[in-house]
Every structure is written in structure tokens, then in C-alpha cells.
Amino acid sequence: MTRKTCIFFLLLCCMTINACTNRGATEQPKKIAIIVSTLNNPWFVVLAETAAKKAADLGYEAKIFDSQNNTALEADHFENAITSGFDAILFNPTDADGSITNISKAKAADVPVFCMDREVNSTTVATSQILSDSYSGCIAMGKYFVKQLNKKGKYVEILGLVGDNNTWARSKGFHSVVDDFPELKMVAQHSADFDRNKAMEVMESVLQANPDIDGVFCGNDAMAMGAYQALVAAGKSDHVQVFGFDGADDVLQSVKAGKIKATGMQYPKIMAETAALYAQEYFSGKRDFPQKVPVAVELVTSANINNYLSE
Q: Which residues belong to the signal peptide in this entry (predicted)?
């Protein structure tokens, strides 16, 4: 090999190394948007922050968007995520029907959307939906409710957002059991939008018309705490049994203290981390994802509460 040939190859190697170095310096990490229905509920804060942390651990940029239970604001977040060049969206929908349009816009822009905890009424728009098995969880809750009320008495049901499928999955699972006991009579059923303060107001109003109730089934833990607060103020917390759903930290402590009778333990961290991992697989070229991935819900009562407080 001549001296000129050696110099040529050395220059070629240097150019190749420089090109690779420059490309590495300019290459930006992929960006993941985490759009959640609300951050006004500690449970959804855990969902959002876990998703963001997992995405960051995987080497991606992550940003959380709060829709404040408003589909119009949610639409703005999707528009922002698409136009700002986010590569994937981890999504907790505000409305099972109203959120479909937003996911469709992301799909048209080739941005994958992975739903967490809440589903939409479509099996063709989201890349995958990772969901709590709310129906089965509330079958177990219904059985425990019947047992605690000795198969008789008056009760109230406080529903979550009427546009969220989880609201109705939980209600239907609960009623699939409780409705078989004719001496258990539902005297009121109202929505409190999964909100603690609204549930307190609903409970205060219900107690005026039905002061002799025996139980309250709430579609989430925030509402259970609001209902319990109203019962304490009315001097009825010792008689009326309150049942929640979520597995929120404050309610776990309340179950241990005997204030709340039971809750359904959901696993927001599992759903959030699974969604982030699915995004990573998508970036690696995978396109075949299960449309719905159920995550089991576990009944938490005073009998097993220590198993959950120690986690």
C-alpha cells in the first residue's frame, strides 16, 4: 500500500468517525406525551407520574398534560402533541365516546396512542388499551357488600363520570350481584364525577331525603372519602358502611382504621409502565399489539389490609 493510499484511508476513517459523532450529537431522544383526564385526583397523579418516570428511564423525553376532565382541553393537548412532534401518546381518556376523535387525529398523523385505565368505544383507533378489570372487581365488591349488610337494608350508589366506561363497568358488576337480593334496596343513585367534594355534596343531599340508609357504594375512592366526610358531619358514620374503589393510599389507611369498609385495588403503576414499554416496542418496529389488556383488581378489606399497606 502506497503512502498516498494510507493517507486516503486515514482521512476516510476520520470523516466516517466525525459523521457518526455529529449524527449522534444532533439525534434527539423520542418524545412521549402523557395526557390524563385530571390531576385533581391523587390516583391519576400516580398514573401520570409513573408513566413519565418509566418513559424517562427508557431514555425518552416525557411531558404530562392535564385535561381537567374537559374534552375540549384534551383536544388541545392532542393538537399540541401532534404539532410539537411527540412520537407517542400515553393516554387516560376523558370520555369513552368524545375522546375517539382525538385518538383518530393522532393515528392519522402516525402517532401511536396507548390508553391507560380508561377505554374508548372503538377497537380501531388506539394502538392498545391497558385497562383495569373493573367489572370483575366490582363483582367481588358486590359479594362483600351483600355480606356486610346481611342481605338487607337501604343503600345509595354514587357514580363517577357518566361518559366513562369504567363508571358503568363498576356499576354493572356491582349490580350483577346485589340485585339478586330483593331486601337490599337502592334508594338513590347519583353521579359525582369521581370528585371528592361533589360526592360530599351528593351525600349531604341524599341524607336529607333518606336519613336511614345502611350503605354507600362509590365508584372510586375519592368519592368514598367525600361520602364518608358527609356522614361524619351528619353523625351517621358509625352506622352507614362506605365502600370505595381504586386502592388509594388514604382509603387504605381508612380501611385499616375501620372508616371505609372496602376498596378495589387497582394497579395504576402496572398500567402506566406497560403503556411506556409498549411505546418502546412500537419505536423498535412492533405493530401487532393486543387491543385490550385487562389488569386484575383485588378486593381489599380489614381482613387483608396489611398485605397492601406493606407494599
A: 1-19
Return the half-sphere exposure (C-beta side, CA atoms, 13 A cut-off) of residue 201.
8
Q: What global pTM score does this model have?
A: 0.83
- Reported in sequence order, the residue ranges of the chain that DSSP labels E, i.e. its strands, are 31-36, 61-66, 88-91, 113-117, 128-132, 153-159, 184-191, 215-218, 241-243, 262-265, 292-295, 298-301
As averages over each run of 10 residues, the pLDDT of the chain (311 residues) reads 42 43 61 97 94 98 97 97 98 96 98 97 97 96 98 98 94 98 98 97 97 97 98 97 95 97 96 98 97 96 92 50
User: What domain count does the chain have?
Assistant: 2
- Same domain for 97 and 153, yes or no, is no
DSSP secondary structure string, 58-70? TT-EEEEEE-TT-
pLDDT in tens, 222-240: 999 999 999 999 999 999 9
Of the chain, the percentage scoring pLDDT greater than 90 comes to 89
Do residues 100 and 186 share a domain? no
Indicate whether 230 and 286 sit together in one domain: no
Neighbours of 286 (CB within 10 A): 11
274 and 230 fall within a common domain = no
Domain for residue 19, yes or no? no
Beta strands 298-301 and 262-265: pairing type? antiparallel
Parent domain of 149:
134-267+302-307
Q: What is the pLDDT of residue 129?
A: 98
> Which of 50, 82, 77 minimizes the C-alpha distance to 66?
77
Residues 63, 77, single domain; the answer is yes
List, for residues 179-217, the tens digit of each pLDDT value.
999 999 999 999 999 999 999 999 999 999 999 999 999
